[in-house]
Amino acid sequence: MGKHAFLSASSSHRWLECPPSAKLCAEQEDRSSPYAQQGTDCHELCAYLVEKSLGKDVTDPTENLTYYDQEMRDCAESYCSYVNEQIEAAKKRCPDPQVLIEQRLDFSRWVENGFGTGDCVIVADEMLQVIDYKHGVGVLVSAEKNPQMMCYALGALELFDGLYDIQEVRMTIFQPRRENVSTCAMTKEELLAWAEEVLKPTAALAYEGKGEFKAGEHCRFCKVKATCRKRAEYNLELARYDFEMPAVLEETEIAAILPKIDELVSWAADIKEYALQQALSGTHYEGFKVVEGRSNRKYSDEAAVISAAESAGYDPYEKKLLGITAMTALMGKKKFEEVLGPFIVKPQGKPALVPDSDKRPALNTAYEDFSENEGGKEV
User: Domains in the chain and their CATH numbers?
Assistant: First the structure.
């Protein structure tokens, strides 16, 4: 295999946990998705807005963006505002902070051919800040010990450590569609120690396709997740339970199963999708066949339907209240808050059982409510 940058910062969360997966994934064909293109479009818009706000002569990319809409514009503008706030804060440290947008960051001192693109890098006396925009809404991304951000920060250190007396590194994930702004701060020494003790030796294993396979949450974006034997073994451990009614399981057994449920469901869905695609390509699985799924009726020509219904004396339209996002776009944020703000409520979310590591506060259970009503006494 030729030398190329398959140990990317964006996939570092996976290959740091499972080093040999890097080489396997590099052998698989890249598959684009509408979500990836949507993210690419918004990154381009974000870069344009920030550079424009900095007084640069840049071209508006909106007419060339595939998925441009008002929500994307709102997200990009909120990102631009946040970046400008950080720049103003940096100016309090020094009058001329360096601001780099969509900057190539090379961290190959620790990772063979390692490089990535930093959405925004701000450098001032004693402080280096890296900001990464995330357009995705499906997965909440935390900056806390985030290896992608740490790799970017290392690349930025390579550029500026000799020019500025950097003491602290701040890494921020800006994810507006999840209302998530997550920042992790560490000293330069802590970052460099991680690079030497964790990143460099693990990257060396990954580049050679060595190390131990490991299954877990990091499998989510792995290209071979459907056929990975280690992931299968990890999930099939649940087969040792008889899956009788939960009432016959001990609480300790249920507690052992719970952490694996989400990954088990995800793995099963990946296997089904992979098998379907293989079957469509001609693979036969004993006891299974490909059939046409159910579908719903639809109009073949909406314009013709409207014309025909109106000609027959019927109103073919239904009226419904605009949703909050659409109404905000119609009125503008300021007017929306002024006119409709008093009518906006956020109902309590449906209870969910999550690991203790989840940052949301715990709800009182029925048992706890009962105990409180009884004066805190055990019952």
Answer: 12-207 (3.90.320), 225-280 (no CATH)
Distance CA 152, CA 5 (A): 14
The answer to whether the CB of 143 falls within 8 A of the CB of 359 is: no
d(CA 200, CA 155): 14
Q: How far apart are CA 54 and CA 332, in angstroms?
A: 24
134, two tokens: 């995330």
In the prediction, which pLDDT does 249 show? 72
What's the per-residue H, E or C state across 316-361?
Answer: CCCCCCCCHHHHHHHHCHHHHHHHHHHHCCCCCCCCCCCCCCCCCC
Dist CA 202 CA 220 (whole Å): 20
DSSP for 203-222, written as a single string: HHHHHTT-S----SGGGGG-
Please name which of 117, 123, 195 lies closest in space to residue 154, comparing C-alpha atoms.
195
pLDDT digits over 152-163, tens only? 999 999 998 878
DSSP 8-state symbol, 364: P
Q: Cα–Cα distance between 351 and 361 in angstroms, integer?
A: 12
Q: Which helix (H) or strand (E) holds 270?
A: helix 251-280
pLDDT tens digits, one per residue of 185-212: 999 999 999 999 999 999 999 999 898 9
* Ramachandran area for residue 113 (φ above 0: left; ψ -120 to 50: alpha; else beta): left
What confidence tens digit (pLDDT) does each residue in 4-28 have? 467 889 899 999 999 999 888 888 8
CB atoms within 10 A of CB 11: 21
- Tokens read off for 37: 């293109």
Contact present, 65 and 45 (Cβ < 8 Å): yes
Q: How far apart are the first and last CA of the chain?
A: 66
